[in-house]
Amino acid sequence: MNIEEQVEKWLLDEDILREMKYDENADFHFIVEFPKENIMDIVKPKGKDSIILACATQVAPQHINLMESADIKTKKEFILDLNFGLNQFLVDFELQVNQDILRQFVVTEQIFEDALTKDMLYRTLKRVFKAKLHCIWLIDKKFGSLPQPSNENDMFI
Asked: What CA–CA distance (Å, rounded) separates 121 from 115?
């Protein structure tokens, strides 16, 4: 069984595979729902001996408004706290920040083929998701929260 078939089997075993996406730059690209109602990507870039797990999140306009109304010191402290916090998860991340306002963030992690097991795949999915949760919770902590949505992911689009 090749790596694509193996990963697909593991995703199907746990019923998290939602879509196989065509990607000209990848040997395979799976869209997964992990945990429930959270979408993530699993990609094997062409010519690489690793897979990338990624979770991209765009901050909802309501939360951007909360950030915009905060003072400059709070905004700068938030970005610094976010960087320090995400760094502790031992994941890679990219923050799209404009005028000290977080607009979007992407959390990624890489697994090399020689370390790829079902256990490693799922532990890494969990770590990437927990890093995303850290961002969500830190926004609530620093800027206050909106009325509780029916689903925690409703606060992001």
From this structure: 9
